[in-house]
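Bumping my old thread because nobody answered last time. Still need a sequence for this structure:
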């Protein structure tokens, strides 16, 4: 059984995390195209893509966004504590994700807000960067997630000065 993830009450503004890595494959892109129906030629046609400014096929921007979300949650950080994904804002596609790129996510707690009508829940907003193997930020933005929170009278974690291990 996996360990329980962090609750809203255990997070603090400025807390930093880093995900594991994963490589983006042709199979990922073909599967995403089939699932979404987005067969844009820059993603699926080698002949077409070679004539574009990219010079080769690239992954869908929304595939990168989806992978970023999976990488954030895949390490178990919010396992059993996340209730709902509430939204994204200020998302920017800065550079293409190429077949074979290895990506990971850096994310920081940017805002914490306890729900007034449900004090056992809180919203965390993360500032998120999707980064390739060259250290280039290819996408960035903010993601809001609804989490379970401890009651106000529950014991709180000790000090918040310890480094958070990369996931």
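Sorry it took so long. Here it is:
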């Amino acid at each position: 059984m996996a360990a329980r993830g962090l609750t809203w009450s255990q997070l603090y503004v400025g807390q930093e995390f880093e995900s594991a890595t994963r490589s983006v494959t042709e199979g990922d892109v073909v599967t995403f195209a089939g699932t979404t129906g987005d067969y844009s030629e820059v993603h699926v046609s080698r002949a077409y893509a070679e004539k574009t400014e990219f010079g080769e096929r690239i992954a869908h921007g929304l595939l990168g966004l989806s992978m970023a979300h999976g990488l954030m949650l895949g390490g178990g950080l919010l396992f059993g504590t996340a209730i709902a994904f509430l939204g994204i804002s200020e998302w920017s596609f800065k550079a293409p994700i190429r077949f074979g790129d290895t990506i990971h996510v850096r994310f920081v707690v940017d805002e914490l807000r306890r729900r007034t009508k449900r004090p056992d829940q809180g919203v965390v907003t993360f500032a998120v960067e999707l980064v390739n193997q060259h250290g280039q930020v290819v996408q960035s933005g903010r993601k809001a997630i609804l989490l379970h929170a401890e009651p106000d009278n529950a014991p709180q974690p000790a000090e918040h000065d310890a480094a958070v291990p990369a996931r």
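The chain is about 20% helix and 30% strand. Let me know if any region looks off to you.
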